[in-house]
Amino acid sequence: MKIKVFPVGSFQSNCIVIMDTDKKKAVVIDPGAEAEKILRDIQSHDCVVQSILLTHGHIDHIAQAGQFHEQTGAPIFLHKKDLDLFNQLPDQARMFGATVSEKTPTITHFLDVENNLILWEGLQFKIIFTPGHSPGSVCFYCEHFAFEKAKDEVVDLSLLLSGDTLFKNSIGRTDLWEGDYDSLIASVKENIFTLPDDTLVIPGHGPQTTVGFERMNNPFF
Ligand SMILES: [Zn+2]
Ligand SMILES: [Zn+2]
Fold first, then answer.
1. Ligand closest in space to the Cα of 178
2. If you measure from the C-alpha of residue 37 to the centroid of ligand 1, how many angstroms do you get, rounded to a whole number?
3. Global model pTM greater than 0.90
4. What is the pLDDT of residues 114-146, one digit of tens each?
5. Distance from residue 108's CA to the centre of ligand 1 (Å)
6. How far is residue 159 from each of residues 25, 166, 221, measured CA to CA in Å?
7. How remote is the C-alpha of 211 from its chain's centroid?
8. Residue 184 C-alpha to ligand 2 middle, in angstroms?
9. Which of 26, 107, 113, 200 has the fewest beta carbons under 10 Å from its own?
């Protein structure tokens, strides 16, 4: 499967697209901006968006979930503890001087931390609940991801999409909307640093890293 990371909008949040070009399926994670461009890219690979996943309810990760939903019909998944935040999208936009379409989409699917989220045969995520940056922040973990490194070269890797919980050499801020520093630190120590060292981490902003690198080098721990 292919992974494409699009840093989008004025916040440069990472919108992540995973595509299975054999099955012609795609999943979009955190569509904060530039939906048209990303949809065109997905269509150019003949893939169809199956689901829209949100790591948390901040504007820079959700602002165009509605647009993706309208154009693809794909359901939007969010942890229910961030539903209030999600519904406050217009308020978040005002606070940052941004504009969003007047229609806030409806969340019909809550992420279930008890069971793996099976997107299609060959791709499933464990939902790791990591409150702290926001009350309902999650990370998406795939233990065996068949990563298409190059044409005809597929490697098996562990993949973590860490949202704004863990960045390369940093962590997400906790001064917004019920953020909580101690919870964030505990979330990472207990639920992320216990994953295999070579797990590839794609954060919600900035460059990729690994669990082992952050455990050794991240100055917050
Ligand atoms: Zn955030
Ligand atoms: Zn963010």
1. 1
2. 22
3. yes
4. 889 999 999 999 999 999 999 999 999 999 999
5. 21
6. 18, 14, 21
7. 16
8. 15
9. 113
